[in-house]
Amino acid sequence: MLPNIEYSLSYAAPTGIERDALSALALNPDARWHDRMDHAQFVVTAMHEGTRVGLGIVHTSVTAPSEVPRPMELGGMFVHPAYRRLGIRQYMAETRLTYALSMGGTPITVIDNRNAASWSYYERSARWAIEREYTGYFTSMPMTIWVSTESSWYRTGMGLAPLVPAQPNTVLPQQLNHVRPLALGPDQDSSVTA
User: Fold this and answer.
1) Which among 42, 63, 135, 160 is most buried, taking Cβ atoms within 10 Å?
2) What pLDDT is stored for residue 162 in this prediction?
């Protein structure tokens, strides 16, 4: 039986106790991690029995040499190893993409070329295309910028009609498990059932 995963959505940069708890999920919560958190526009957190087991953010602190207008990076995705292969990553990825598109931004994600699992996902997906490869500023390793094929920038470049942003009535992906709303810490805005 699959665990009952609950999702919390926040539309503000996490601070205080919540930020510390989210940073504990990161492999290396360094200065770049905190810069992303400072510029977070949207945070989705996966919870199991009150424990944070996954995190995904949409931020505007883009350091990759992307040439897209209004880039919104879907960065900082983490799922605890014990909770992988349960659909958490896919749900959080879909939720972040939906949010970024609804805000009229150009969703991008930056993948370390050594990350075979991420490469496999983006290569198979028709929803993402390579914008460019470059050498990472922080890692000095080959990186690839992927851009959403649903973004207005990409669609216009391909000669397709741009999609109209869906805000403010964004419909987020439906969850298969039954969930109940989560209460966030006292320093967070609100929580909604995803």
Assistant:
1) 42
2) 74
Beta partners for 59? 40, 73
Categorize the per-residue pLDDT at 178 as very low, low, confident or very high, splitting at 50, 70 and 90.
very low
Whether the predicted model's global pTM rises above the 0.70 cut: yes
Distance CA 62, CA 73 (A): 6
pLDDT value, residue 109: 94
DSSP states along 2-67? ---EEEEEESS---HHHHHHHHTTSS---HHHHHHHHTEEEEEEEEETTEEEEEEEEES---S---
Residue recorded with tokens 């966030």: 184
| 181 assigned to some structural domain | no
Band of residue 191 on the pLDDT scale cut at 50, 70, 90: very low
Q: How many CB atoms lie within 10 A of CB 127?
A: 15
What single-letter DSSP state applies at residue 86? S
Using alpha carbons only, how large is the chain's radius of gyration in Å? Answer: 16
Range of the domain at 29: 5-157
Nearest to 64 by CA among 24, 100, 99, 32: 32
Indicate whether 16 belongs to any domain: yes
The number of folded domains in the chain is 1
Contacts of 58 (CB under 8 A, 6+ apart): 40, 41, 42, 43, 72, 73, 74, 75, 96, 99, 100, 107
Instruction: Dump pLDDT digits (tens) for 139-168.
Output: 788 999 999 999 988 888 888 887 765 544
Residue 85 lies in a domain: yes
